[in-house]
Amino acid sequence: MFCMDLSELSLILNILGVVSFAISGVLVAVRRKMDYLGVVILGIVSSVGGGVIRDVIMGRVPPQMFTNPLYVAVSFITANIAFIFLFFNLEGKSRPAINRFFEEVYFWFDTFGLALFTTQGVIAGKTMPGASIFLCSFLGVMTGVGGGVLRDILANTVPAIFIKHIYALASIVGALVISLLWEVNDSWAMIMGFILIVQIRYMARRHKWNLPHIKNIPPEHIER
User: Fold this and answer.
1) CA-to-CA distance for 84 and 95, rounded, in angstroms?
2) How many structural domains does the chain have?
3) Residues 143 and 136 sit within 8 Å (Cβ to Cβ)
4) Dist CA 168 CA 50 (whole Å)
5) What is the DSSP string of 43-78?
6) Does residue 142 fall inside a structural domain?
7) Within a domain: residue 19?
């Protein structure tokens, strides 16, 4: 279906994922009241962090972000554009309006970034000789959630994959679908996996789905 080889498709997915996660990183940084430098760094880390984790697992040392500056450049430019846009467009807006804006925009860019990078991670695994379904799926998930985990840690928040809206589970399901259906039809496998991740995230948000957790445990009772 796609008139391009895997390397070209991987490049396109990488760039789209970098843009999506860079914007999500900027939004998190702005909500945490970081200055310009913090905003740009969080945007870059969000967009390339998953790829670094993937490359290390695959034995690509140094990781691609250090050998090909394209992705860092795209994330840097995206973060600056997003910062400038927010800087000049949030003044004068009410707090509820700003909160709604942040929640809506953040959700969709973070979701598309997750789906794009999960798909790209599986593709990266498929380029390895004899790669198993488990390895390809694992690379997809690590690529998808890795940048977000690093972003949230730097922002001093609990990573979203552990607490909210079936985040990592959506990536796992999507990566497995792509890996399992790859030999049947790689194009449809990627499309179905991507759509499935977005759909799971949307339904989880709409219906407030979350994985079970133990409630009402005072933090001071947790042994460290």
Assistant:
1) 19
2) 1
3) no
4) 13
5) HHHHHHHHHHHHHHHHT-SS-HHHH-THHHHHHHHH
6) yes
7) yes
Q: DSSP 3-state assignment of 79?
A: helix
* 188 Cβ contact list (under 8 Å, min separation 6): 1, 181
Q: Say how many Å lie between the first and final Cα of the chain, rounded.
A: 53
Is 145 in contact with 171 (CB distance < 8 Å)?
yes
* Cβ within 8 Å of residue 42, ≥6 positions away: 25, 26, 28, 29, 34, 79, 151, 154, 155
Say if 224 falls within a structural domain.
no
Measured from the Cβ of residue 126, the count of other Cβ atoms closer than 10 Å reads 20
Give pLDDT tens digits for 2-55: 555 667 777 888 899 999 999 999 999 998 999 999 999 999 999 999 999 999
Domain containing 85 equals 6-206
Q: Is the link from the previous residue into 219 a cis peptide, with omega within 30 of 0?
A: no
Q: Give 137-189 pLDDT, tens digit per residue.
A: 999 999 999 999 999 999 998 887 777 668 899 999 999 999 999 989 888 99
CB 24 within 8 A of CB 48: no
Dihedral angle of Cα 151, 141, 23, 75, to the nearest 10 degrees = 90
Taking CB atoms within 8 Å and a gap of at least 24, the contacts of 103-108 are 105/23, 105/27, 106/24, 106/27, 106/28, 107/201, 107/205
Asked whether residue 221 is domain-assigned, the answer is no
Q: Which amino acid is at 115?
A: A
